[in-house]
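Hi everyone, sorry if this is the wrong subforum. Our group has a chain we'd like a structural model of before ordering constructs, and none of us has done structure prediction before. Sequence below.
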Amino acid sequence: MADKIINDRKVIKMEIKKIPKWEEKSIVEKQLAVLGLILSIAVIILAALSLTDGWQGTINVVELLLGLLMLVQTLQFWKYNKAIAIITLIAAILCFGAAIVSFF
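Answer:
Right subforum, don't worry. Here is the predicted structure as tokens:
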């Protein structure tokens, strides 16, 4: 962390790592990205089914899939920005809690 003195106040500059390009990612990061894409497509399809009343139980499945998607995003961001990863983890826990409450 780099420290600077500006107007007699100490300002701490956070170091945020740059997210690598596809070629620079490891195998695990690529697998997480593909899994996130598959979960996103599934959420979109199930949300469309829910809007058209095609299936009555879609909201329970969508909430669980959104929680899983947020867990995948937590794993993706953990290496690069822990603050965003923690916020995403809290959102995933809230999604799972909402899914449990709406299911029962």
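For your construct planning: The chain has a mean pLDDT of 85. The CA atoms of residues 87 and 104 lie 26 Å apart.
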